[in-house]
Design a protein that fits this description.
The chain is α/β, with parallel strands linked by helices. The chain has 18 helices and 19 strands.
Length: 546
């Protein structure tokens, strides 16, 4: 049985003698290798004017520039929203627009287009507000703006509501019948508007300089890295190496990854993304946006602020996680916990950590005295929103999707909320077995544990949603040695005998499973390169075992 309680799912059963290359193509259902592995080109991007309202939107923006009317870009506070906002502000400034920006505060305002900001823009005689990564679910706010001569151009990618806002223009892939790719991120849709503006102003050759910003949200927002998203990220990672933006370069320098070779989606997902997200989670999201817009010394100073906020966010996360773990009842089918000082910008991270560690849906809340604001993270099969709907009558609000949701309730209703959720979960789990799937590409043969084969595997990058890092099964493996490593001794170095050879490995956060690992026969691993003292060696990264 999986030590982490996961359900292993083998993507493909290899035939005797089948090569690793053909196995991976089959496991990943790559039907057209020529296209999949081809070097990405700007010409691979779809025509932005295939969006139904793109001509209308760009014409209105050009007219505003010519008339010296004010434009405001209003984006969400996460990486997708802030990177898309920065992208559009840079583009609009380049083509001569009088442009500024707004971002709602996660803790004070919450998600969306807010009337108080609309009123502020109306009072300041702003002519156009362009949304990024939001707006499609805000019909009342859009109507209020339009009624007061403030034209709204929505760029968004979220679920289409039953009532679509009556905006001046809407750029949404699912409302564009002729647009061939429907899975763009919020920054991806903003990028398409930027492309259209650059084409219309005869600056098409400058499109590449903006694509690294689009790739940030595309990776961080976990949209599928297929189709046009794959092209955006491929081009964006190359552009990162010579980024035009001082703020982005300063962030990369602080991660220690600048000038250290080619960037990967992990560079965005685990190094850039957390730094950009930190200010919106625990402070003011303007720190992130202004860093991406900054130049020269100002860029270095603002990137330092992001570094400090990210360190603070990490410390807060660890402290809250310890408090939450000490308060939960693991005999229950789901995890529910609340605490004062548990920032609502952090509780989603805590819920995710607890869900992953204990393989149970987690509902974690910040106690604000008379109310609670929470986030849920669930497993496939247990729909977080359906569970919350059981308590809809006592919730101030809720929303999300199957595996992630947000909610808000009054403190006086906490006991009823907790009771009803536990009752629903207990009844549900009696009828349904819920396990997190772990998808494995194939069984790896001992002779395929080489740097050359790792290069073949790496050619399937960039990795992310719908194209995850390849995971492999080693059958009948034998652990030869283990030792604790790391500052807090949370990790394991190990040696495994597979076939006739010995291979080194690293198991992050597996220290508590050291005794069980000695009894393991089957390992789930990913292949990694270990660069040390001028040498490059192969490492096995342990993901799970049984």
């Amino acid at each position: 049985m999986s030590i982490l309680g996961k359900e292993w799912q083998l993507n493909y059963k290899r035939q005797p003698g089948e090569t690793l290359w053909s196995t991976l193509l089959a496991a990943r259902t790559v039907e057209n290798p020529g296209t999949f592995f081809a070097e990405a080109k700007v010409s691979d991007l779809h025509d932005p004017f295939l969006f139904k309202d793109m001509e209308r939107a760009t014409t209105r923006i050009q007219n505003a520039i010519n008339a010296r009317e004010r434009i405001v870009v209003y984006g969400d506070y996460d990486v997708d929203g802030t990177s898309g906002t920065a992208l559009l502000v840079h583009t609009l400034r380049f083509i001569g627009a009088e442009v500024s920006y707004r971002i709602p505060h996660r803790l004070k305002d919450g998600y969306g287009l807010h009337k108080k900001y609309i009123d502020e823009l109306i009072e300041q005689n702003v002519a156009i507000v362009i949304t990024v990564d939001l707006g499609i679910s805000c019909p009342a706010e859009v109507a209020h703006a339009q009624e007061n001569n403030l034209d709204v151009i929505i760029t968004d990618h979220h679920t289409i509501p039953s009532k679509i806002p009556e905006a001046f223009a809407i750029l949404h892939p699912n409302l564009a019948p002729d647009y061939p790719f429907k899975k763009l991120s919020g920054s991806g849709v903003a990028f398409k508007l930027a492309c259209a503006l650059l084409i219309k102003t005869e600056n098409e050759d400058l499109i590449p300089r903006f694509i690294d910003l689009a790739s940030l949200g595309t990776v961080a927002d976990c949209v599928p890295l297929i189709g046009e998203n794959r092209t955006i990220v491929k081009l964006g990672l190359k552009q990162l190496e010579k980024t035009h933006w001082d703020g982005l370069r300063a962030i990369l320098e602080r991660t220690g990854s600048y000038d250290k070779g080619a960037f990967t989606s992990d560079t965005i997902g685990f190094q850039i993304g957390p730094r950009l997200n930190a200010s919106g989670r625990i402070d003011d999201p303007y720190w992130t946006l202004q860093t991406l817009l900054a130049e020269g010394q100002d860029a270095h100073e603002k990137s330092q602020k992001l570094e400090e906020l990210n360190l603070k966010r990490r410390k807060m996360t660890e402290e809250i996680l310890k408090e939450a773990e000490a308060s939960i009842d693991l005999s229950k089918a789901i995890i529910i916990a609340a605490g004062k000082g548990w920032s609502s910008g952090i509780v989603g991270l805590i819920a995710g950590r607890l869900q992953e560690k204990y393989q149970k849906p987690a509902f974690i809340m910040e106690d604000r005295g008379d109310s609670l604001v929470g986030s849920a993270r669930s497993l496939p099969g247990f729909h977080a929103v359906h569970a919350l709907k059981i308590t809809e009558h006592i919730l101030v609000g809720f929303g999300g999707h199957e595996q992630a949701a947000g909610f808000h309730l009054k403190k006086e209703n906490l006991e009823e909320f907790t009771t009803k959720l536990h009752e629903y979960a207990e009844a549900f789990m009696k009828k349904n077995i819920i396990k997190s799937p772990l998808k494995l590409d194939c069984v790896l043969n001992p002779e395929e544990l080489t740097l050359a084969d790792l290069d073949k595997i790496s050619s399937f990058a960039p990795f992310g949603m719908a194209n995850p890092k390849p995971l492999f099964l080693l059958e009948n493996a034998k652990i030869i040695s283990t030792r604790l490593v790391g500052k807090d001794q949370k990790h394991l170095k190990f040696t495994v005998k597979y076939g006739k050879e010995l291979f080194p490995g690293i198991a992050f956060n597996f220290a508590e499973h050291e005794d069980a690992l000695w009894k393991a026969n089957n390992l789930v691993i990913e292949l990694k390169k270990n660069h040390w003292k001028g040498e490059t060696k192969l490492d096995l990264g342990l993901v799970d075992f049984s």
